[in-house]
Design a protein that fits this description.
five-stranded mixed beta sheet; alpha/beta; globular; inorganic pyrophosphatase (n-terminal core); homodimer; Diaminopimelate Epimerase, Chain A, domain 1
Chain lengths: 307, 307
């Protein structure tokens, strides 16, 4: 057993898995810490595509941290972390989300409002003169492509582009755009998934003014084919809300080619959601033109509306 | 008016003032932000000695932030910040304390468990190839000397020593130990201070399990001469507790030459304080042998005991 486990959020996406692996490597080399990357769930199809492409093994899956000291990547809120977070010591955080964290000891934090944690890590490797192994560079490039939808999401910053281009070189990716489209498409194969898998794939739980709101998101190239399963999705949402005590469930379906979304909503707080997006729902469906980023375009207006 | 105000905690010490000045300079040069260093109180005698020595003007004093965006240095908790923190946007934090922060937007954070924020900033300048002006290097060296008691406090890390030696060179300090003793002694001139000034000089407010605890600290070379004013100090503590709603007041008197402390305690939670330090108080006096660091040796055991 290592001294520290390094992990991203529950329902891991490509940035969370890649950043856990990259951070573990960085800390082992920079600070000589004894760390191991783990994950709070099995990799999704997009991440699996990247892991296979760069021949990297998927991290072991845990629910509870097994070490006394841990490192959080790509999240800082307890609701998105291991179940025993309050029993362990957070030694370090690498993140690009809003903050909601408290502890009782000074710690390392590197947070920047950039498109992906992999971008932050690229500059940590560079500034500290730690060389990036090519397969880790490949995962980090995949993470940037995933989180920024190939540099097209509004979360994208100038430094994401710089980091992606440099990482693609180190990884030996001659054409990162071509690779990126393949990667994103690997994540949109939704037909074989159950409603539960669609809803849980990338869902996170948020607390806003005392209300518990579940927000899921899937990427697709065909929103209508997902919406054709609306009744079954609503039934599955009901079930999850009852089981887990969510007050609301917002399921965002994003067209990654045309940069648009539609969402299915279930819950008691429809009025706040309608106010957040200045639009009336049509039989549980909320049109979200131009919306692709949960973090930048979904969560902040909801928080404002729930205030 | 600048676009961002940069400030440290209330009751500013040398690290808080120096780090606000250094951070403002760093951000203006690195990110081309338009920032201005301000302070949440007038500099103490130690800080004034450093400002005069390096011919730097004291920052303007504010109580409320006057800009919509702000940068916090040397603190992250609302209780130690501007009175209108919840109305402004925190764009960045540079700190070395425990964390208790939440917001609604991704932001920049650089936190490390090192002896002073000035040490963190030294490496930010260095890693980003921003040259440090000699007078700012002098203030940063003073900050490290102040927070680590000339590298003798248990908060001191290897990197504090490296940073102090490099900064002393840039500042043209030929003998930083000699300068450091002068600086620390400038902060221990307590005889002309009223009881209120002693108590407020470096006091911070902490919330532990719903209790509001005020913890002050003075450095001295003669603990007994401070203790000879015990009755007047207790009367002043009572007054402040009543006025501000503090449940407890712990006033730590630290001998910087011999690295020991004694504290005067007033409040309802004596049992928790005695448990924290495994010692019985003797008529309001608590003996704290070997204790010099509030952050590392006073706050954590109290938090553990109040849990």
């Amino acid at each position: 057993m290592s001294e520290y486990q390094v992990f991203g959020h529950t329902n891991p996406d490509t940035d969370t898995i890649a950043s856990a692996i990259a951070t573990s490597y960085l800390l082992n080399n920079l600070y000589k810490w004894d760390t191991q990357a783990v994950a709070l769930g099995t990799p999704n199809e997009e991440t699996t595509f990247a892991l296979n492409y760069f021949k990297v093994q998927a991290p072991n899956v845990i629910k509870e941290a097994e070490t006394e000291k841990v490192v959080l990547v790509d999240h800082n809120e307890a609701a998105q972390s291991v179940t025993n977070l309050s029993d362990v010591t957070v030694a370090s955080i690498y993140d690009h989300h809003k903050f909601n964290f408290s502890n009782s000891d000074p710690l390392y934090i590197v947070a920047k409002p950039w498109g992906s944690v992999a971008t932050i890590l690229y500059f940590e490797f560079k500034n500290n003169n730690v060389e990036i192994p090519s397969e880790i560079a490949g995962l980090m490039a995949s993470a940037i492509i995933s989180d920024t939808l190939l540099l097209k999401s509004p979360t994208t910053t100038d430094v994401d582009k710089i980091a992606l281009e440099e990482l693609a070189k180190v990884a030996g990716l001659e054409n990162y755009k071509e690779y990126g489209l393949e990667l994103l498409k690997a994540g949109t194969n939704l037909e074989n998934k159950t409603e539960e898998e669609l809803l849980n794939g990338d869902a996170k739980t948020f607390t806003m003014s005392g209300r518990t709101i579940r927000i899921g998101q899937v990427n697709t190239v065909d929103i209508d084919s997902v919406l054709s399963r609306k009744d079954k999705l609503l039934a599955a949402m009901d079930k999850q809300m009852q089981k887990n005590g969510f007050d609301d469930f917002l399921f965002v379906i994003t067209d990654i080619l045309n940069s648009n979304s539609k969402a299915i909503f279930q819950g008691e707080d429809l009025a706040f959601v309608e106010e957040a997006f200045s639009i009336k729902a049509d039989n549980h469906i909320i049109d979200l033109p131009g919306v692709v980023s949960r973090k930048k375009q979904v969560v902040p207006p909801l928080e404002e509306s729930f205030k």
